[in-house]
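Posting for a labmate who doesn't have an account.
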Amino acid sequence: MLKATISLKHLVAHFRRNPGTLFIFLFLLFLLFGVIFLIFAQTLYGVEFVRQNYYSFLNTIGVFAYVSLVVGVILQLISFRHRDSDVENSEEDI
């Protein structure tokens, strides 16, 4: 049987190696929150009420999600570029 355990030490090490992961995870949480909120609000109050009263709130959540995705991708690219340069430097030393 496959057993998966995640320790806090491994999680912190992963976030240090991949700093954009947290922001990409926040992007997913923002989207999930927005969708769940939209579903429940439309179910309880109706589509027109949500469109009139919660449009700017949902738009703000979408902007936060997009910004966190952009920041996460930029941080990941920087991290990968830095890691690639470390690999090239270590190969030159050999």
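Reply:
Got it, the structure tokens are right above this. Residues 85 and 91 are 10 Å apart (CA to CA).
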